[in-house]
Structures are given as structure tokens and as C-alpha cells.
Amino acid sequence: MKIRGTVRPKGSAPKRSRLQASACVAFALCATSAGAQVQIAPQVEGGSQVQLYGLVGTYIDSLKRSDMAQSQVQMGSGGLTTSFWGIRGKEDLGGGVSAIFALESFFQPNTGAQGRSASDPYWSRNAYVGFTGAFGRLTFGRQTNPTYVAMQAVNPFGSSVVFSPLVVQTFVTSYGGSIIGDTVWNNTAQYTSPSYAGIGATVIYGLGGVAGSPGIGNLGLHLSYTGGALTAVLSAQRVRFTQVGPVGAQYAYLAGAAYDFKIVKLFGAAVITSNVSMPIGTHTYEAGLSVPFSPADFLLAEYARTRRSGPVDNSLRHTASIAYDHFLSKRTDIYAVYSLDQLSGHPIGNTYGVGIRHTF
Fold it and tell me: Looking at the 3D structure of the chain, how many domains does it have?
């Protein structure tokens, strides 16, 4: 649903325009909650545009990781994609430059709760403001970690923190996630370059906010290439974290690619982490494929393994998922998933699930 504005006619009342815009946004929110499809065009100064959008998904599965004693039947929020809703806007400032903002929040449709968990802030997915133009894009606020964004391009399950073996082994704590930190970073300044011959770059820095420690913030450097059937990514990030004693730091590196042969799309990636303050690290390798049986039907398969190295933990974890995804329309799909998980020293765990997601 989009709320569009046009340049205010000469002589119109600014106060009235602002009131009209506010009323239309409020009406749009109410209409959306009632399941309505609404297109509204208020008179807004500066040619600004505001859009309401999101995704609602839920799934039911019988979950059993390798380190679980018994399986757990549950209804979860998200599944292939974590549920969220958002408001974003853009205003033309002239000279090819626009002001932009986005406010996005995760939520749990199975319980109605806000956020992924009780610890999430209200605008948990993104909350930033900035500028965009021929120079690229510069934004400030709470923003999605570009390493996580890059990872979505090189595995067939995309952003799924439930079913993607690559994502769960690197970002999900219950699977021993190797990368320290969240998929979203606070207090960040991010610059994304324009694309040159398919190559793009992103730099992100997170201010630590700790007095006397200007270097405590997170840092990420990212490159991507998209050309024809090939997609490739390269990411490096440093995350600083507090612990007993001095501030620690982890370095994480991601390299991956995907190639679309039309009859099958292949994926591959590698993730390496190392902790500066402690002699521990991880090596993760992933391979996957997506097979389009028709424009509406896809087979997804992925495997990942993570080896830990350190004085205490030298475990090896194998995780694999296979899914069938059927699109009922451009915005609604249903799917069935089977996942296998094995952690060294534990028996194999099997997970079965079905889900639905809808974008708006």
C-alpha cells in the first residue's frame, strides 16, 4: 500500500497539508489492519512519498535439534522469512538528492507480540534516516547487518533464521551461532555506493557509545557483484563485545556466490570467525540449490557444516534442509520443510514443518 504526495500547489496552506497527510496515514494504518487494500494520495509538501509494507508468516513444526532430548511441537512466527511491518518515505530535496527514512518492526503473528522476543526494541528491524542520490546512499540509525544481507544472496533459504543451515549455524544461538552479535546493529552510520559494472560496496560503522573508548564500535566492509546469472559477495566485519576483563573482539569473514543455470540455481559460501581476545574460531562451509519446477513451484535444498576450534570446544555440526515452496499468488506462498541436524557427540535430530507467508 502506498501513500503518495505531490508538490504543494502555490498558495495552499502548509498547516492544512500536514493535517491532511497525518489523517491519511492514520486512515491507511486502520484500513490495513482491517485487511483493506488502500491507495491514498494526499497533498504533501516537497513531493514526499510514504509507504506501508510488510510480511506476515507463520509455521508449525516438530522441532528436534541434535542436542535436544525430545522433539517439540510448536507454532512459530516467521519461518522462511521473519514477520515484520514497516513505514518508509522519501522526499525530493532537489539536485538529484532525496531524504529517506524507514521504520520497521518485527512481530510474532502466533501470539501478537511485538519483536522477535521481549528484548527487542519497538523498531527492531530497521530505524534509520538519511540521504540518497547519484553519490550513493548514506543512512544513520539501527540497521540490518550487511553481512546478514549478503548471506541471504548465497543460500536458497534466504534470510530464514529457522530453516537455513547457513544462517542458523552462524547467527542463531541455539545452533551455536558462530558470529557474535545480532542481525541488526544499533547506532550505525552506513554508506552504500552506486553500482559500477555490477559491483557495489557498503561500509558500516557502529558507534560504541562508551565514554573514553572511541574504538569500541562495530565495523563492516562489504562488496557484492551482480551480473547476468552470477551473484557474488565478500564481507568482513569486526564486532567488539564486553566480557569479564577487557573488551573483546571477533572478526568474521564471508565469501559466497550463486549461479543461475535456469534449470537449477547453485549456491555456495564459506564463513570464518576468529576471536582476538580468546584462542577460538570457527569454519563454516555451505552448499545449496534451488530447482524451479514451474514459475510457482520450487525445490530448495541446503547443507552446512561448522567446525569449532579452541581449548575447550572442538565440535562439528552438520545441518541440512530440504523444502518444497508453492506460490499461490505473487504475494502468498505455502511450503513444507524437513531439516536434519547432528552435533558431534549427539544423535541426529529431525525437524518437520509447514508454513505460509504473505507480503503486503
Answer: 2
Residues linked to residue 351 through DSSP beta bridges, in sequence order? 339
Are 349 and 64 a contacting pair, CB within 8 Å? yes
Please tell me the pTM assigned to this model.
0.84
User: What does each C-alpha distance from 235 to 33, 154, 219, 225 come to in angstroms?
Assistant: 38, 12, 11, 12
Measured over the CA atoms of residue 327, residue 117, residue 160 and residue 2, the dihedral's sign is: positive
Q: Which domain holds residue 238?
A: 48-359
Q: What 3-state DSSP class applies to 234?
A: strand
Q: Specify which residues 350 forms β-bridges with.
A: 340
Phi and psi torsions of 100, nearest 5°: -135, 155
Say how far apart CA 308 and CA 223 lie, in whole Å: 26
The three-class DSSP label of residue 26 is: helix
**Sign of the C-alpha dihedral computed for residues 356, 145, 91 and 96 taken in this order:** negative
Residue 227 contacts by C-beta under 8 Å, 6 or more apart in sequence?
197, 198
Q: Are 85 and 54 in contact (CB under 8 A)?
A: yes
165 and 234 belong to one structural domain: yes
The terminus-to-terminus CA distance of the chain in angstroms comes to: 7
Mind listing the pLDDT tens digit for each residue in 280-330? 899 999 999 999 999 999 999 999 999 999 888 889 999 999 999 999 999
